[in-house]
What we know:
This protein is mostly helical. The radius of gyration is 35 Å and the shape is globular.
Amino acid sequence: xxxxxxxxQFLSQCFLNTLSPLPEPRRRAETALAEASExxxxxxxxxxxxxxxxxxxxxxxxxxxxxxxxxxxxxxxxPPREPNLPALNxxxxxxxxxIKSLIVSLMLKSSPKIQxxxxxxxAVIGKHDFPKAWESLLPELVANLDSLTQANDYVSVNxxxxxINSLFKKFRYQFKTNELLLDxxxxxxxxxxxxxxxxxxTVNLIDQAVASGAxxxxxxxxxxxxxxxxxxxxxxxxxxxxxxxxxxHMDEWxxxxxxxxxxxxPVLEDTGNDGLAVVDGLRAAVCENIGLYMEKxxxxxxxxxxxxxxxxxxxxxxxxxxxxRERLTVTAIKFLTTVSTSVHHTLxxxxxxxxxxxxxxxxxxxxxxxEDEELFEMNYIEFIRRDMEGSDLDTRRxxxxxxxxxxxxxYKDKVTSKVSLQIKNCLGLFSQNPDANWKYxxxxxxxxxxxxxxxxxxxxxxxxxxxxxxxxxxVIVPELQxxxxxxxxxxxxxxxxxxxxxxxxxxxxxAMALLPDVVRFLASESNVVHSYAASCIEKLxxxxxxxxxxxxxxxxxxxxxxxxxxxxxxxxxxxxxxENHYIMKCIMRVLGAAEISxxxxxxxxxxxxxxxNRVCQNPKNPIFNHYLFESVAVLIRRAxxxxxxxxxxFEGSLFPSLQMVLANDVSEFFPxxxxxxxxxxxxxxxxxxxxxxxxxxxxxxxxxWKKSANVPALVRLLQAFLRKAPHELNQQGxxxxxxxxFNTLISSPSTDDQGFYVLNTVIENLGYDVISPxxxxxxxxxxxxxxxxxxxxxxxxxVIFMSLFLVKHGLQHLMVSxxxxxxxxxxxxxxxxxxxxxxxxxxxxxxxLTSVASTKLICESSTLLDSKVRGKVxxxxxxxxxxxxEERVLEEPEVPDFxxxxxxxxxxxxxxxxxxxxxDPLKEVNDPKQYLVASLANLSAVSPRTYPQLIRxxxxxxxxxxxxxxxxxxxxxxx
Length: 975
């Protein structure tokens, strides 16, 4: 795309139309830009438009956003997630070079909004090219930074610093490698000194402004923001290890850091939250820097420590009282927590300090605030994510408790005593006026729950703060038994959370007496409360006694099962809980545990298909949808296995929904739909109903297999058909179609195991007379893969397939069919692939199959294979049967899985409850070790002295000893 007036006019009009409130011109403009973006130099043309001062600011801003997104998609494009999507054309190297030569100067000349977009675009380039493929960037930024600070143009200074901050962020989150350390050294060599210079220059400007008493708020704001950015860059450059330059200049940094924690800036702080937020942003960045030094360079940092602890402490006492200073409060408490767990914990030893911490820092931060109540009511998902799922480490409430835990590592008894007293005081205040002081009770419950200690490797928790049963009885039970499920919802949520957390410690009789009350709370109008009630029931059903036996059984649930299921489905009719995954997970768990009568089954399948029909319109919540399909699968499994007459009723309810999934191309649900269909096919008795045969026809079409995420579920469904309707394969060339699918799957390392699943099911379910015409085709496909790209996984699957073939159709058919493709290839395959890979087999069914097949191979091949090969087969069998898995299985090189691409649309998700039962093709053999020894004993009785010699010449010494031991165990001998 050439830059000329016509291009400028075309792009200007397109970007103007993208801002239109009318959908039609907006769509046309977006399509035109998408087409234009395929042309070379498109990004450069858009950048020229952004630089054109005569073009309207709004159009240029829209162009800057488009330019940034264009670079994200095409600077270094990843392969598309879906195989049938076209790959994006990357930006050419000459265009990249021109963009890199223009972008820095253009960014610095632009208005703030355009500047921020170009800064992000520059960071996109930097992510791929900086520093190795863009060595001129940092020197150019440093030169501009120097001239801009001299000119006191701090809006542009901050633009440069923000860009450098983005470029250096990788040093915070990437693993330490030699390559990363080389990049870090380059950045330190080129920017450590300029960073300190700009930091000190800005220090002087701030000090002068404050000292003169006439500080301009706007100027001071950009200076403070500049220092915050310098602090973030400092954090990145120091994150991996302390560089020598920073160690040499530590005083210069630390003196200023302390000043920013102690000095007030009234012109900003006293004129509204915006100014205070800017200053607190700098203080929070300082707290992160000193926290980093405390963690990584404690010895060097020690001389500054007491001054910083005092400064942070004083700041916290003030900021804890303000609801708008969360970020600062959290980072400050994190710093004190780091100190409390270090060798300097004695700073917190004194009783009066602990008293101050609990009263002035912990309690004010744990106490509910208006914004907590607002989040509870307006965004229940985020509230639960923070509160119940433990992702609230960066909130005041949780981090305040983490500080207590940190101090408690060294002063447990003191912390327990102080916090227990605070809990008692909170409950006392609540009892004086429950309606007005309910937040104090919530605070008490939160402290007990958050400070509880989880036992390693389990779900049990413990606490020394209170006696759990007494606290539960006096504090929690009154909330759970409250008749009004909508009164004081935050207290109810806290009580349900306590019940859930301490579920293992509470006696079954106590919990059972309260379960009907928890079921009542499913009717609460509060999304959080009915979600916590669902979660409580779901977690109770997971409690195990003695680590194995479920504490709550179907008998326990039966008395209120119908009410429970009714309330769960009703809860999903509440506003914003239509796709509440806590409720759906509870439905799944209850259906997995309860005794499902015909009435309950009918009500549940109706409820679940109604939900499924609704979410098909617009799948939004992958977690909810997964539990929905698991619920359907567990209902099918448990209800239909108990009462097979329900199968046709379930099919009547589910088929329209599953057909809607397929007809409306709801691709996210395809893998689920195929797994449910496989489950239903397997439950049917032959002959399979006609409506399934129609699905079978669709299944055999090549188009059905194009999307890789569908492959495992399609294979599962195909296997179900092959097992239930093998006679259908003889009709209309269907077996050819099935083997065509096998051929496609086997050719790729990412799907070859799925190909073997198809092949094994064919071999297992059809007679040799049916499959013999196709065996040449099958062996050619397998031999091609052996030559082109064998993996350990493929070789193991090949041994399993040949073993299955041998036990189902006999050694003679196996050998003849292979040798028909290539003369004497059978012995070569046995020698080169079967023998060395047999010992790598894992899985109890696979181990039995391959060892028995290999034993048959030895017994039936005395005229087909020479004694040395049979001896080597025996050596591998003994290794397989006598040595533990970790001794014989090699680490397998990682083969990327076709489902590894992250994202809702691209991945296969296995339904646990729709899983097929593992079939044992050798039910008549109970013990493969006994089978081996008995077979060898019988053989040796016919040919005495043959096998002892074969064993001496071919088996490792350890395997000879193992075989002798097996003979003794079964009281058999090889003569």
